[in-house]
Amino acid sequence: MTDAVVSAVLCCAVEGNPGAKVVMISALWRRARIDPVCYGLRVRWLHAKF
Q1: Within 10 A of 19 (CB to CB), how many other CB atoms are there?
Q2: How far is 12 from 15, CA to CA, in rounded Å?
Q3: pLDDT by residue (tens digit) across 2-48?
Q4: What does pTM read for this prediction?
């Protein structure tokens, strides 16, 4: 279930939904606490322009 929800949010973020982008950044920030790769992804999302 979680994978489906995150995939839907990701699609919305890529399509330009600013709220979905914030959700992705927040999720990556939380995940970065246990997975350092997510920190780099979060930084890229912060500066991404779709």
Answers
A1: 10
A2: 5
A3: 789 989 999 999 999 999 999 999 999 999 999 999 999 999 988 88
A4: 0.79
Tokens of residue 2, six digits? 């979680």
Q: Hey, what are 26's tokens? A: 């927040």
Which pair of structure tokens corresponds to residue 11?
A: 């699609």
Strands (E) in 1-50, as ranges, are none
User: Tokens standing for 22?
Assistant: 């914030």
pLDDT at 50 over 90: no
Q: What is the largest CA-CA distance in the chain?
A: 28
Helices 18-32/2-14 angle, 10° precision: 130
* Token reading at 45: 């999302």
